[in-house]
Amino acid sequence: MEHDEGRPEPPYFPVFREDCEVFEQMDDESLLMLFRAMIRYWRDGEYPDSDILSDGQVKLVFPGIRRKLDLSIEKYRRTCDRNRANAAKRGESEPTESAR
Fold first, then answer.
1. DSSP single-letter state for residue 47
2. What is the per-residue pLDDT for 92?
3. Is 0.70 surpassed by the pTM of this model?
């Protein structure tokens, strides 16, 4: 997912409980490579390069993780947009000082 300038970015990095079993099955080197790929994707929007994807475990697991990260970012942005719209509605309905 490309990061849009001006769009809110989540302040958290999700690790999903359902993926923990998969992570536990991975060897340490592959898990570290996967985690670094997840961080770079989350922070910078960079898809892992071919060196990282040459690891079979990472190549197998990353696409599913990527989908979840993308969905998390979109969910966060939708929530921010909704909150912004609700705040704007409240601002319109509150009387101003001069109207009191």
1. P
2. 73
3. yes
